[in-house]
Amino acid sequence: MSADPLSSGRIARRFAALKAEGRAGLITFVTAGDPDPATSRAVLHGLPAAGADLIELGMPFTDPMADGPAIQASSLRALHAGMTVRKTLELVRGFREGDADTPIILMGYYNPIYAYGVDRFLADARDAGVDGLIVVDLPPEEDEELCIPAVKAGVSFVRLTTPTTDETRMPVVMKNTSGFVYYVSIAGITGTASAANTAIDAAVERLKRHTDLPVAVGFGIKTPAQAADVARIADAAVVGSAIVTRLADGLDGSGTVRPGTVEDVLGFVRELAEGVRAARG
Q1: Residue 127 appears among annotated catalytic residues
Q2: Which residue in 13, 145, 175, 248 has a CA-CA distance of 20 to 30 Å to 263?
Q3: Nearest-CA neighbor of 255 among 55, 77, 51?
């Protein structure tokens, strides 16, 4: 069974606190720099008070193959606004000036990290206050590229598992996973269909046989009620596309942020958090 080598880090501390409270966590996803640096910063800084227990921060990329239309569009908006890997790390650094406790996991693709330089990226990420990475296009066979160096640098490497990860593949996937396990509840891209609760229940139970790490469930969670359903079963519910869509809905025809958009997005996160926190009674 896998064990977290970063057992004293923010991710481990947060999940321990959630367990002590007897509830699941809410993990929110937003794309760094979407739709512009100032709005992105305001949303990011407001997420913990709105109820986000952990934050996934997307690193914009030109070809986000695992993401659906909503997150693809957010990535393009961020890139057009000038967001880069360096600026993403600066965004985290600024967040850390006011929040020393909320875990931040960067989610993205390997190409921008490779171009930045793996060792330099890990050193800068750790220095900025990044706690974990989710890199969706690096399989376990490529662990020497980034996964193992990340863990050695003190950055958790969170692995995705899916409904098609069978019993033979599972130990391979879990071998160097740390922080938590992210269960992708549907076989497809982000922001599409939602899985049945019975399927999620069985999947989480199966994952728990292979790991002692917390299990977070995402893909297809769009409403507070759906988040609550997942929170009754898993250690955390992950909501991304619905939040990103809410932000996009606040843009006018020219892509300018309408007044009140940040507050609307954070209000939606509060509704999700209320659902998650009430899920277990």
Answers
A1: no
A2: 13
A3: 77
For the chain, where are the alpha helices, taking DSSP H only?
Answer: 10-21, 37-50, 69-80, 85-96, 110-116, 118-128, 147-152, 170-174, 197-208, 224-231, 241-248, 261-278
Judge whether 30 and 40 are in contact, CB under 8 Å.
yes
Give tens-digit pLDDT for 3-47.
444 667 999 999 999 999 999 999 999 999 999 999 999 999 999
Could you give the CA distance from residue 174 to residue 212 in angstroms, rounded to a whole number? 10
Domain ranges of the chain: 10-278
Catalytic residue among 34, 67, 229, 235: 67
Q: Which of 34, 56, 124, 143 is catalytic?
A: 56
* CB-based contact 189:68 (threshold 8 Å): yes
pTM for the structure as a whole: 0.94
CATH number of 10-278: 3.20.20.70
Residue 97 bears catalytic tag: no
